[in-house]
Amino acid sequence: MNDSSGSRPIYVDAHVHLDEYPDTWLGAVLQQLEEAQIVSISTAMAPQAYQRSLEIQQRSPWVCATIGVHPWNARHFADTLDAIEPLLSDSPMFGEIGLDFRNVRDRSMYAAQVKVLEFFMSAAKQQDKIINVHTSGAETEVMDMLERFEIRRAIVHWYSGPLDPLKRMVMRGYMFTFGCEVLSSGLIQSLAHETPLDQILTETDNPGGPQWVFGEPAMPELVKPVVQALAIVKGIDEAEARERVRRNMISLVGDDARLSGVRHALDGSPGRYFTD
């Protein structure tokens, strides 16, 4: 395994929605990924978003496109999951998937969320794939499903819930992404403090996440101040924090051949598309 500390640093953005950038921004976004060496997992909120992410992936060896149906969109797809199933085998991870009982207040929509999440978790178990999971306001329910489906590898996106489900997720070895809110939120900083360093990843949730927090979208290099903030929370220097995140992502990917492109990028030797 290469150690990036002696060469140009490599960053990890384990949860980003590259498909949501307008075409007028995309060239600059991809240039920044290249120049800053940011390995980016482009999650999708719907199959159409996944198709656009695949097109973006073809333009950069730093991008890995993944399919998902966001819980906010679950009601639109719960009755047509058969149409999504043929797309699953080619996606090296699944995301963004999950439950959201905090921002979605209409309880009549919860059954559709559960149905869609069960669909993806069943496929993840069968195909032994990483999932990128949203848990807002439904942390215990998601944790129960992770255990029921025996999900081996998961990225828990922007966790902001109570400590008990977090501790259960930690015990199962799942990774947790921290993003722009760690710059300003005492709650998120305390959760980052509670999360073991070897289970922490960085994210931007660009472009929508920063827009929600700061009022405007951000560019990929937002991941740099996130690393700096995590270093402060953990009491380590920035270079160590960045390197630990890189190694954590390497550990998560392991020897999964479907993610060989991600591994090449994490080792500082990108150059072939993730679809190869």
Please give a structural write-up:
- The chain is an alpha/beta fold and 276 residues long.
- The protein has a single domain, classed as TIM Barrel.
- Helix content is 45%, strand content 13%.
- The chain has helices at residues 23-36, 47-57, 74-77, 81-88, 110-127, 139-148, 163-171, 186-194, 208-214, 223-234, 238-253, 260-266; strands at 11-16, 38-42, 63-65, 93-98, 130-134, 154-157, 175-178, 200-202.
- The strands form 2 sheets. A 5-stranded parallel beta sheet has the order 4-5-6-7-8, with helices on both faces.
- Helix 10 (223-234) crosses helix 11 and helix 11 packs antiparallel against helix 12 (260-266).
- The two termini are 21 Å apart.
- The model is unreliable at 1-6 (pLDDT under 50).
Outline the fold blueprint.
Layout: E1 11-16, H1 23-36, E2 38-42, H2 47-57, E3 63-65, H3 74-77, H4 81-88, E4 93-98, H5 110-127, E5 130-134, H6 139-148, E6 154-157, H7 163-171, E7 175-178, H8 186-194, E8 200-202, H9 208-214, H10 223-234, H11 238-253, H12 260-266
Helix pairs in contact: 10-11, 11-12
